[in-house]
Amino acid sequence: MKSASYIKYIFAFLLFGSNGIVASYILLSSVEIVYLRTLIGSLLLILIFVLTKQKVQFWKNKLHFLYLVISGVAMGASWLFLFEAYKQIGVSIATLAYYCGPIMVMILSPLLFKEKMTMAKMLGFIAVILGMLFVNKEAFLQGEISRGLIFGLLSAIMYAMIVIFNKKAVTIKGLENATCQLVVSFITVAIFMMFKQGLVVNVVEGNWLPILILGIVNTGIGCYFYFSSIGHLPVQSVSILGYLDPLSALVFSALFLAEQLSFHQMIGAALILGGAALGELFQPKKVTSRGKLVKL
C-alpha cells in the first residue's frame, strides 16, 4: 500500500512540474488556458468523487467552508498570475518566483498559527531573498522589475493565501477538499474571464490534445493521485518529495523548451529551493501533511 502511495505521490509531482511545458504548446491566452484547465479538472474530480462514493460533508462547518472558498479563489488567481508569468519570463524563472510562496507562509506562521519563529525559518527566508536577487540580477542592477516577475511574485502571494486558508479548513479533507477548491477556482476564473472577454474560447486546430492533457492528466489525475496518497505517507517524505515539483519544472523547461539558467541564476535557484526546504524540513515540532500544499 505504501509503495503504491509513493508511486502516485511522485507521479503527481512530476505532472505538476510539467504544467508549464504542456501550456507552452497551447496557442491561447493565459486566462483561457487556466479557464479550460480548471473546467476540465473540476469535472473530472467531481466524476471521481461520485464514482468513489465519497460523502459530502463540507456544509457541516460553514466557517471552514468559507476558508476553503477563500483558498479556492486564491488558487484561481494564483494560476492566472503564474501562467501569465510562464508566457512572459519562461517556465524556469516563473517557477522560482512562485516558490517564494512557502517562505511567505513560514514568515507569517508565527502570527497566524502561533508557531515559533526558528533560526531555520529565518535563515530560509534570507536564503530565498538572496536567491531572488541572484535569479534577477540584471533586472535589479538596472533598477527594473519585469511584468513577468511581478506576476510570478503575485502568484507566490496567492500561493501563501492558498496554504494559510486551506490549513484553517481542518474539517474538510482529502478528495472533497481538492474537489471543492478546484470548483471554486474554476468559478473565480470564469467570472474574471466573463468580464474580460466572455466565456467563448476559440481553440485552434491541434490545441485540444495539450488542453485535454493539462486538464485531465495534469490537473484532474494529478490532484487525485496527490490527495489519495498523501495520507498514507510519512510527514518527512511528504515534505522532501514536494520539491520534485519545482526541480522537475526546471529540468523539463531545460529539456523541452531549451530554457537555460545562467550560473548566477543556478545559484539563485539553489538558494530559493534550499531556503524553502530549510525552513520546512527543520521543524521544532511534528507537523501534519496538511501543512504542505503544492503547485497544482
Properties at a glance:
globular; mainly alpha; 296 residues; single chain
Structural class: mainly alpha
Give the count of structural domains.
1
- Strand portion: under 5%
Radius of gyration: 18 Å
Tell me, rounded to a whole number, the average pLDDT. Answer: 85
Helix amount, in percent?
over 70%
By DSSP, the count of extended strands is 0
End-to-end span in angstroms?
24 Å
Our count of helices gives 14
The major pleated sheet works out as: none
What is the 3D form?
globular
List the uncertain runs: 286-291
Give an account of the 3D structure.
The protein is 74% helix and 0% strand. Mean pLDDT is 85; it is low at 286-291. The protein has one domain. Helix 4 crosses helix 10 (174-196), helix 5 (91-98) packs antiparallel against helix 13 and helix 7 runs antiparallel to helix 14 (263-281). The protein is globular and about 50 Å long. It has 14 helices and no strands. It has 296 residues and is an all-alpha fold.
Q: Concise description?
A:
This protein is an all-alpha fold and 296 residues long. The chain is 74% helix and 0% strand.
Task: Record the SSE blueprint.
Elements (H helix, E strand, L loop, with lengths): L1 H16 L1 H5 L6 H22 L10 H28 L1 H8 L2 H12 L6 H17 L1 H5 L5 H22 L5 H23 L11 H22 L5 H7 L2 H13 L6 H19 L15
Helix pairs in contact: 1-11, 1-13, 3-4, 3-10, 3-11, 4-5, 4-9, 4-10, 5-9, 5-13, 6-7, 6-9, 7-14
